[in-house]
Amino acid sequence: SQQGEEDPQALSIQEGENATMNCSYKTSINNLQWYRQNSGRGLVHLILIRSNEREKHSGRLRVTLDTSKKSSSLLITASRAADTASYFCATDIIQGAQKLVFGQGTRLTINP
Amino acid sequence: DTAVSQTPKYLVTQMGNDKSIKCEQNLGHDTMYWYKQDSKKFLKIMFSYNNKELIINETVPNRFSPKSPDKAHLNLHINSLELGDSAVYFCASSQSGRAAEQYFGPGTRLTVT
């Protein structure tokens, strides 16, 4: 089974609204990262939150991490059409060599 | 000034053929990765190299053989291609260390017919 699972799988909102995506994982982590993938492109790193952090901001992005619930959320405020993309959470698991385990992503559509 | 580049971008080939995908990064990173993204967008790591040494091999069939001639390059050779190998393959790189963000290439869409 997958380490990370995003919820919802797809989200469609109006421009200007806020978008919230959630990620749950199963095993203890060093850090959790969020990436964006535009259609037909590679992934782009958005934000990294360490296991001892609870909240982090970057521009219109806000990420929270609750290690007791093994969950994270990504909030995009004041969404724009250019935010339309798939968003993936990726966990760096404590055991073994560093590797990121990705969820299946949330497909976000911003309607103008 | 592309950070992580891959060639080719598209690859269409028949079952049983052998093909290679090349990856280069100019970020000065010492860790490179290959990922496979299937049709459902599920992204899974295949290999990771650190300073030209293989550190992760995620139970990938031995038809897949990565090669890292130097820290800036990580190539992927696939023998005896099968239909199930059809996917998008991404190369990525990062600094060493656990809190390292990864930089991805644009991907190579492989279609096996």
Give me a quick take on this structure:
The complex is a heterodimer of chains A (112) and B (113). Chain A has 112 residues and is mainly beta.
What does this structure look like?
Chain A is mainly beta and about 110 residues long. Chain A contains no helices and 11 strands. Chain A has strands at about 5, 10-15, 20-25, 30-35, 45-50, 55-60, 60-65, 70-75, 85-95, 100, 105-110. In chain A, strands 2, 4, 5, 9, 10 and 11 form a 6-stranded mixed β-sheet that branches. A 5-stranded antiparallel β-sheet of chain A has the order 1-3-8-7-6, with no helix packed on it. The radius of gyration of chain A is 13 Å and the shape is globular. Chain A starts with a strand and ends with a strand. The mean pLDDT of chain A is about 90. Chain B is an all-beta fold and about 110 residues long. Helices cover about 0% and strands about 55% of the residues of chain B. Chain B has strands at about 5, 10-15, 20-25, 30-35, 45-50, 55, 65-70, 75-80, 85-95, 105, 110. In chain B, the strands form 2 sheets. In chain B, strands 2, 4, 5, 6, 9, 10 and 11 form a 7-stranded mixed β-sheet that branches. Chain B has a 4-stranded antiparallel β-sheet with strand order 1-3-8-7, with no helix packed on it. Chain B is globular and about 40 Å long. Chains A and B meet through strand 4, strand 5, strand 9 and strand 10 of A and strand 5 and strand 10 of B.
